[in-house]
Amino acid sequence: MQKSALIPTIEQQVVRDLVVGEYLPAWCASRARSLDPSNFKIPDWSCFLTPSVARWFLAAIDEGVVEVTSEGDLTLGGTTPDGIFETKGFKSETPRRMGIRPESFLEVAAVGMLAVRYNWPLERLRFQSPGWAFDLLAYADDEWSEVTIAGEAKLKQRDADALSASLKICSERGDHEIGDCDQTRNHHKKYEGLLKFRPDILWIVGPEAFAGVDPDLVFRVQVGKGGVSRLRRVEASKLRYEALTARTASPGVRAAAGSNKARRFTMKRRSSQVGTET
User: Which of 30, 42, 61, 115 is most buried, by the most CB atoms less than 10 A from its CB?
Assistant: First the structure.
């Protein structure tokens, strides 16, 4: 995985300042937690917050794709990622140790990219699938009953590549129980998620999804009889809302899509001087 430069870009520094200076104190002070921010372990930002991940994370915040609550949580239509903060150790420990959950930064960046670059209406994007098989879903309908995109974030690119390989093996094999699967338990659950939700597109979100011109691990999903499925690599343009939804949308959703289409990278709260994306 590409690491951040020694001197952070403006976007990287802004994310660090927001997380530690604004989100963390609010998260710790919430009535349900009552934690001390001084017990927070500063992470090695270079392991996950590349310039491009930081840029799309900020896009999600600045463009209103993801909201920051008064308790320091990030929400999208009432749904949340697993959380950018997490407690560590035993509950009986005093004081509780705290740290970062790095994959959540990729999840937030991914929904930001879907909304800003690929024009998805916010009403159809959600964090976490029912049953927790996938990190994010994009729905084909207003009732959230038909999944168009299933997304899964992996902190390391090699883990993203390994998941795609495992899913192909499970898909070619067809119906089989988790106890009879030679792939990891986590990977098998993603295969079960494909059978359950039957998305048109699977997007495995590794760090390289943000580093290049377009994401690369994008697959067309075809589920056949007996759970035998096919994952076919497709261009990132297939993530585009217009390319995937030929169905009739309600006026409100059409208006939201039009609003998304007109979006630009305003970076409303940022300096007009931005760092170089790599």
Answer: 115
Q: Rounded to whole angstroms, how far apart are CA atoms 260 and 141?
A: 17
- What is the rounded end-to-end Cα distance, in angstroms, of the chain? 12
Would residue 278 count as lying in a domain?
Answer: no
Q: Whole domain around residue 79: which residue ranges?
A: 10-261
How many residues in the chain?
A: 278
**Closest C-alpha among 212, 205, 198 to residue 106:** 205
Q: What secondary structure letter does DSSP report for 122?
A: G
Cβ atoms of residues 171 and 228 within 8 Å: yes
- DSSP H or E stretch at residue 246: none
Output the DSSP codes for 138-191: EESSTTS-SEEEEEEE-SSHHHHHHHHHHHHHHHHH-S--GGG-SS-HHHHHHH
Residue range 187-232, pLDDT digits in tens? 999 999 999 999 999 999 999 999 877 788 999 999 999 999 999 9
Question: What pTM value is reported for the model?
Answer: 0.86
Residue 87 backbone phi and psi in degrees, to 5: -90, 155
3-state helix, strand, coil in the chain (%, to 5): 40, 15, 45
**Number of helices and strands (H, E) in the chain?**
9, 10
Residue 5, domain member (yes or no): no
> Among 13, 79, 52, 14, which Cα is nearest to 268's?
14
DSSP track, 56-95 = HHHHHHHTTSSEEPTTS-EEBTTB--S-SEEEES-TT-SS
Query: d(Cα 128, Cα 83) in Å, to the nearest integer?
Result: 11
User: Which pLDDT tens digit goes with each residue over 73-88?
Assistant: 999 998 998 889 998 8
Q: How far is residue 56's CA from residue 35's CA, in Å, rounded to a whole number?
A: 29
In a domain, 171, yes or no: yes
